Amino acid sequence: MSNKLTGYELSRKWFDFCFENPDKINPNQTALYFFAIEWCNRLGWKTKFGLPTSITMEAIGIKSYNSYKKTLTALIDFGFIEMVECSKNQYTSNIIALSNFDKAIDKALDNALMKHVPKQGESTYQSNNSINKLSTNNEEQLNISDLPEINITFKLFWDLYDKKKGPPQKIAVMWGRLSDAERVKAMEHIPKYKIERPDKQFRKDPQTYLNEKTFNDEIIKHNENGHSKQTGGSYKQNATSNYADRLFEEFKELE
């Protein structure tokens, strides 16, 4: 097994394979493979290592040696485990190695998960450009429970930005690809940006806002004499703080 491979990468490859081959896999195979990963990890990620049969069977709840042997053989046939030396019986260890399996289509599961994210938008928003958009009873709702867990959910951004225009699925992916620090910066920037452009038709579309990382731009405000003034610093230090504070409290309540 490559030294660069991690437990996360191995598990990702396994579930990509499972998604592509639902007719071939069963829970015993998942349990055995993940126990093998755990055992390898405890041994310091040795290239070849002994997998004790009796301990493994007890750990994953397989009572029959024949079932265990059949499960292990399947993982070998799939290409996830290499058999280095077979055990003599059920009381000795097989010497195995974890394979760097590279036959799964990595993007298949990701694309399938994206198809489960229903569209979100105003009731008048309609689009035939994407087969990934779903609607129920003409009520457009956004369910992002299938997206990876992040520090600030897409729904909080979507509600705070308050310009529901564009494909929510694609925008949700863009939001998820930001760093934690960038998401925090965006959520602090949006209330100030809304003060600068209270009429939402003059705000950038959410997709453009994220794509151009507008949250990195300074806000330009105008004094009573008409002169522009650039403002930076933290959110609480900006002018018109009362209205900005109110918007920020709305964001906090969404959490």
Short description:
The protein has ten helices and five strands.
SSE inventory with pairings:
Blueprint: H1 7-20, H2 27-42, E1 49-52, H3 53-60, H4 65-78, E2 81-85, E3 93-98, H5 106-115, H6 154-161, H7 168-177, H8 180-196, H9 206-211, E4 219-222, E5 228-231, H10 241-254
Antiparallel strand pairs: 1-3, 2-3, 4-5
Helix pairs in contact: 1-2, 1-5, 2-3, 2-4, 8-10
The strands making up the biggest β-sheet line up spatially as: 1-3-2
Number of helical segments with 4 or more residues: 10
Mean pLDDT comes to: 77
Shape annotation: elongated
Q: How would you spell out the order of helices and strands?
A: HHEHHEEHHHHHEEH
Low-confidence stretches: 118-142, 230-241
Strand content: 5-15%
How far is the N terminus from the C terminus? 43 Å
Rg (C-alpha, Å): 26 Å
> Total number of β-strand segments?
5
Q: Which structural class should the secondary elements be placed in?
A: mainly alpha
Largest sheet: 3 strands, antiparallel
Helix content: 40-55%
